[in-house]
Amino acid sequence: MEIKIIKIGSSKGIRIPSKVLKEFNNPDGFKLNMTEYGIFLKPYSNNIRDGWKEAYKKSNSCALDKKEKL
């Protein structure tokens, strides 16, 4: 995917297509890291509990939560 650099006031920037943002669950922003290969953007969300529910389901937590039938 090619993205052109655009003028934003006295700065320059890029537009991230909404299709891309939807794939990352519409993050609040991105952390930018410069590497020897180029720019790396990592999405982040301000909700610190994002992903906790899925992680809990995958964990081997309390057996009572599993409600196993004997």
Number of strands: 4
Describe the strand arrangement of the main beta sheet, using strand numbers.
1-2
> Beta-strand percentage?
25-35%
The outline comes out as elongated
N- and C-termini, Cα separation: 54 Å
SSE pattern, N- to C-terminal: EEHEEH
Q: What average pLDDT do the residues reach?
A: 84
The tally of helices reads 2
Structural class: alpha+beta
Could you give a short account of the major beta sheet? 2 strands, antiparallel
Task: List the uncertain runs.
Answer: none
Number of domains: 1
Determine Rg (CA atoms, Å).
19 Å
The helix content is: 10-25%
Keywords:
70 residues; alpha+beta; two-stranded antiparallel sheet; two-stranded antiparallel ribbon; 2 helices; elongated
Short description:
The chain has 70 residues and is of the alpha+beta class. It has helices spanning 18-23, 52-58, and strands at 6-8, 11-13, 29-35, 38-44.
Structural features, described:
The chain has one domain. The chain is 19% helix and 29% strand. The protein has 2 helices and 4 strands; from the N terminus they run ββαββα. A two-stranded antiparallel ribbon has the order 1-2. A two-stranded antiparallel ribbon has the order 3-4. It is elongated, with a radius of gyration of 19 Å. The model has no long low-confidence stretch (mean pLDDT 84).
